[in-house]
Amino acid sequence: MPHIRARGIDQKTLEGIAEKIVVQIAKVTQTPHDHFTVEHIQSAYITKGGASEAYPFIEILWFDRGQETKTKVAAIIDNALRPVVGEMTDITVLFSDLRGQDYYENREHF
Questions:
Q1: Which of 64, 63, 54, 66 is closest to 90 using CA atoms?
Q2: Which CATH number fits domain 3-109: 3.40.50.1820, 3.30.429.10, 3.30.465.10, 3.40.50.300?
Q3: How far apart are CA 66 and CA 18, in angstroms?
Q4: Cα torsion for 69, 74, 76, 80, to the nearest 10°?
Q5: For 9, 27, 49, 74, which has the most beta carbons within 10 A of its beta carbon?
Q6: pLDDT tens across 47-78, in order?
């Protein structure tokens, strides 16, 4: 069920790396590829002076898989994005751990 949301990255760039990221994360988490979703969110970053350059902000919603797995997944994402955005650009990966008691699919509680 991992759901990956991406902001601050061009949609074409995300399309170019999404499969690679999903395959690698699926392997680390032992989750089937077809359980993943990747969402591109068009956004604008605003500062005091108006619009500013965005940096990749990747959010992963999933059931907690532990700190070691989070560290591996963050590295997978960073390694995939770094050649595109360069060494000096910040890349943020944020994990939102979902609780099973809050998860419903097709009206069914998991």
A1: 54
A2: 3.30.429.10
A3: 23
A4: 170
A5: 9
A6: 777 777 788 999 999 999 999 999 999 999 99
Q: What is the dihedral of CA 84, 77, 92, 43, to 10 degrees?
A: 60
- Number of helices (H), then strands (E), in the chain: 2, 8
- 82: which 2 tokens? 């770094």
Contacts of 76 (CB under 8 A, 6+ apart): 21, 24, 25, 28
Find, among 95, 37, 87, the residue nearest to 68 by Cα: 95
Question: In b/e form, how buried is each residue of 1-17, taking b as 16+ CB within 10 angstroms?
Answer: ebebbbbbbeeebbeeb
- Please provide the size of the chain in residues: 110
Task: Report the predicted TM-score, pTM, of the whole model to 2 decimal places.
Answer: 0.89
Per-domain residue ranges of the chain: 3-109
Phi, psi (deg, nearest 5) at residue 9? -140, 140
